Amino acid sequence: MSSVLRSTWPLLLGILLLMVGNGMQGTLLGIRGSIEGIPTFLMSIVMSSYFGGFLLGSLVVPGIIKNVGHVRVFAALGSMISAILVLYAIEPNWIFWSILRFLIGFCFCGVYVAAESWLNEGASNESRGQALAAYMIVQLLGIVVAQALLNTGDPAGFLLFIIPSVLVSLSFTPILLSAKPGPQFETIKRMSFGELYRASPLGCVGIFVMGGVLSVVSGMSAVWGAQIGLSVAQISVFVAAAYAGGLALQYPLGWVSDRYDRRKLVFMLGAFGAGVTFVVVLLQPGTLGLVIAAAFMGGVANPIYGILLAYTNDFLDPSDMASASAGLLFINGIGSIGGPLITGWLMGQVGPDGYWIYMGVMLSGLTGYAAWRMTRRRALSPDEQASYAVVSHSTTPLALEALLDEAQSDDPAETREASEY
Description:
The chain is mostly helical.
């Protein structure tokens, strides 16, 4: 790993700065929206817009890069991100913010694709897995660091919008100075939903569900925190705890998933996560209890997403990797768009508890479906399973394809048998 860090640190540093900027804007808007008196459901539209833009970017950006090149796309979209982060403070209006969030989601997808292609191209076959793992860890770490910076200014002012803009601008320097010409790649045509579902029903349903859950954690946590009267410091600790929990448990649970029936692990983690949400609703804990609950939720949700991708990968042929990765992320994107909208509506109907109720219902549904799927298909042995890979919710098709391919290359089995559906 040390050799990987020595060769990729400029790129990883740039990604860290990008993620700090991205992590700040998501939480900050939730807090500022409450200050401006924007209703919860309208804020859910603002938050959902990011994932709509990100989904469009995953479909369109590879073709743009193919036509004009990685450097131009990265510089153009990065400049737009820096400008948008300042524009938020000019007009705190939910329609204006929704447009900007859609655009910034599109732009972040583009810069991720460019950065991931450079990372993938610069790593050797032997180090690619470690480089991608470091990249995913840096993404989560950047969001955690972002929450601390929220306490450096007044969310009702301009400073907290300027800081992420400056950080994003600074991120260009190490990335562009270290970047090599990116690899040529074709626009990816996603596998049909029918083909994906036949390969892994649990994977498709679960990735859709977890897209909704993770988008609520990243998009609606600050909105919920402001609604119940948490301070900026308390909201930042809550959000940081969710990502820190995911960061801490990715590797341990991934290690277990390589040696255990992944469906049973999804069942147990889903049941535990649902239990956490129902305990919060019933007991209404104080700030410390909420932070612990956030750590548990993040520690469950992020690894479940990675485990479901690994489980789906167990039934994919290497020749289907590119189209499957695009299809899986499209399913994830649809779930991500819907999660904040449903949660915002639910919070308007039942109050702040709607935040926890939504995640509890979704995780309960996933738990029940995982239990049913265990009766429909035999369990794979550890030798038949591909390796688990650390995955971020903001992964693009390019990185996901590389991660799935790397995981399969670590698989000791030469063939993989799909059993009865």
